[in-house]
Amino acid sequence: MKILLEEAMSEKKIQVTLGNYKGVEVKKAEIIITEEEVKAELERARQYAVTTQDKDGAAELGDEAVIDFVGYIDGEAFAGGDGTDFPLKLGSNTFIPGFEDQLVGAKKDDNVDVVVTFPEDYHAAEFAGKEATFKVTVKGVRSSFLPELSDEVVQKISQCKTVAEFEEFVRKSIHDFKQNQADMEKENKVLEQIVEASEIEVPQEFIDERKEQLKNNLLAQLRNAGNTFEQYLQYNGLTEELFEEYAAKDALSMLKGQAVLQEIAKAEGFSYTDEDVDQTIAAMAMSYQMPAEQLREMMGERGVAMVAEDILSKQALEFIVKEAVEA
């Protein structure tokens, strides 16, 4: 295994001359939890206690209308404009502006023609600015009841017994989240300073390769979400050229950080065992819900070597953070 790692590392011709990596100064994070944050989380938790019941009367804002709908533009049904048994909370602004307002007052079994205009900046450019008519059938109306937070409610939505205990749990959860964010920010700042203090030469072909990997990962995520690259660019206000520029910067930053961590691991004599690699792959396989051996075969020798490389990088990152000085 160690031979594989050395071969994998020797293939990379990123030249690194380390700057100072011990005793890097960073500003100490101050974890502040406001009462407003606690109240907001308590209110969000209270939503889990909402109960609904069928309503015979007209739908009001805040009610849930269960609808079937088909959308038409210029008299033709369009792709993605239909749905069945869709639970739409009126006033949630889930649909196009004006859609939900036109269902206020509707009752079960009503048929409603909802006429709306897609916003000019709508993410699907082919619909932007166009008027559409949705044929809507209201299959049911439900009203919601939101109880006040009480010991009884707390016991239903959590493992706590009292409101006071739940509030402390929420406060701790907010603290832990902020502490985790602060820890990650500290890691980034420490590594950024070491990268800046070091001399690093990254061949262009490695930047191009990593940039392509980043783009392919994004494209896969977009496909899984049912979106396109063009929609992503439009939503984020990017041109393809600007995206390529940002991706290249991200690729270079990642490569520099990884190269510095590997060089620190080498300087400090960090090591790993085959058992470390096996445990890491086993954890990865569990998250992917597949046998570890199957994942190892899919990864190949290079992939397994990268796992070992990542283990050393994590050791180096933990080391430089521990050595950092908070001011």
From TrEMBL:
Keyword line: Cell cycle, Cell division, Chaperone, Coiled coil, Isomerase, Rotamase
One Gene Ontology cellular component annotation held by this UniProt entry: cytoplasm
Domain of life of the organism encoding this protein: Bacteria
Coiled coil: 174-201
Annotated Pfam families: FKBP_C (PF00254), Trigger_C (PF05698)
Catalytic class of the enzyme: isomerase
The protein's Enzyme Commission number: 5.2.1.8
GO molecular function annotation: peptidyl-prolyl cis-trans isomerase activity
An individual GO BP term: protein transport
Keyword Cell membrane attached: no
Reaction(s) catalysed (UniProt annotation): [protein]-peptidylproline (omega=180) = [protein]-peptidylproline (omega=0)
Domain PPIase FKBP-type span(s) in chain numbering: 62-122
InterPro entries found in the cross-reference section: PPIase_dom_sf, PPIase_FKBP_dom, Trig_fac, Trigger_fac_C, Trigger_fac_C_sf, Trigger_fact/SurA_dom_sf
Compartment(s): Cytoplasm
Biological role: Involved in protein export. Acts as a chaperone by maintaining the newly synthesized protein in an open conformation. Functions as a peptidyl-prolyl cis-trans isomerase.
Family of this protein: Belongs to the FKBP-type PPIase family. Tig subfamily.
Protein name, UniProt field: peptidylprolyl isomerase
Provenance organism: Eubacterium ramulus ATCC 29099
